[in-house]
Amino acid sequence: MKRALILLVMFASIAHAEDRKRAEELFRAGERAFRAQQYSVAAEHFEAAYDAAPIPEIAFSAAQAYRRQWFIDREPKPLHAKRAIELFRVYLETVKQGGRRGDASDGIAELQRELDKLTPSTAVAPPPPPKTWVAVSAVVAGEEAKRELGDLSPLPASDLVNAKATLDGKPVELYAPVEVKPGEHVGEVIADGYFSQKKTKQVIDGRNEVIEVVLQPKPAILVVGTSGRVLIDGVSAKSKSELPAGKHTIVVLQRGYEPVMRDVVLARGEQRTLAIDLEPTRQRRSVKWLLIGSGVLALAGGGATIAAFHYDGRMSDIEAKRKAHGIDEAEYREYNDAIDSRDFWRTSAYVLGGAAVVTAGVALGLYLFDQPSTEGIRLVPDPSGVSVVGRF
């Protein structure tokens, strides 16, 4: 007996969870129909959701849908207005304080005044017998878990305006109930920027169902045309990357070049190529001129060395002649001039050569330590809507 009771409790919990899930699907379909101003369709979904899970906020939502439909078509048989009043009263009886009691009270008073204007002979037809219908609904992946069952304020923004639905291969209006025979039915939704999805559902006779298709967004593909290192949203990335839709920050770094950053907004499924030209830093540009200067100094030092060797050779020739035969006064003066010139050009060669080496060393140091950095960069507005970053 105890085991049977436990099983009954388990089955009841499972059934309650299934009803809750079904109510959520129906409510989301009604919410989207309400947003599309299909109020009679929204009311049907909210009614079915309320049957599955009698939550007062769902009753309020259904009342709002009926109320708006009443003011649109002013049907001769005021079913919408009467049903809206009933559901507003359900909400007031359940929610004793707070919530949207004021809106519900105002709705009842407003609709009752409208009903009072009708003649007493206006007959109210009995509600139609229950039918077996199914509606194809669409929701973006992750959105179904964001919202609790509740009223319609505030409504989330939707980007499924151009979505198209089929039921069993035939085009149908999204969220609109379609009468079907009991059995298995297949719903499919195609929307720009999303992968098309199908879903199969078993429909029971006399029951209202929603085939809720969860759409997966297509990634955007961004190709960054550059020779530098690419970072996307602060993470190192390849030059070709798949990214979720939305805003992304692209940073390109390369040794010796100014860092560049661009903000791009990508749509789902978009393919975009971003060409980024890098400009050398002032430090890198100075390396070029330092190397040129070093080369000039090296050439000058080489010329001075040649001149030093020339005068050293002349001095050696005169010295050899002096030792062999002796030299006159003019040759002696020439000998001393050669020594002075040799010493001058030799010293010049040392100075110029050392300066060339130091200049080349400075150029090498500037080259090696010219690392890219995102420090000191500033945003520069771009007419294309892209923000380019430069260095102060």
Could you explain how this protein is built, in words?
- There is one protein chain.
- With 392 residues, the protein is of the alpha+beta class.
- It folds into 3 domains: 2-215, Serine Threonine Protein Phosphatase 5, Tetratricopeptide repeat (Alpha Horseshoe), CATH 1.25.40.10; 220-281, Immunoglobulin-like (Sandwich); 282-368.
- Helix content is 46%, strand content 23%.
- The protein is built from 7 helices and 17 strands.
- The chain has helices at residues 2-35, 39-52, 56-73, 79-94, 101-116, 282-324, 329-368; strands at 133-140, 164-167, 170-172, 178-179, 183-190, 194-195, 197-203, 208-217, 220-225, 229-232, 235-237, 240-243, 246-253, 260-266, 271-275, 377-380, 388-391.
- The strands form 5 sheets. It has a 4-stranded mixed sheet with strand order 4-1-8-6. It has a 4-stranded antiparallel sheet with strand order 3-2-5-7, with no helix packed on it. Strands 11-10-13-14 form a 4-stranded antiparallel sheet, with no helix packed on it.
- β16 and β17 (388-391) form a beta hairpin.
- α3 runs antiparallel to α4.
- The model is unreliable at 1-15, 153-157 and 376-392 (pLDDT under 50).
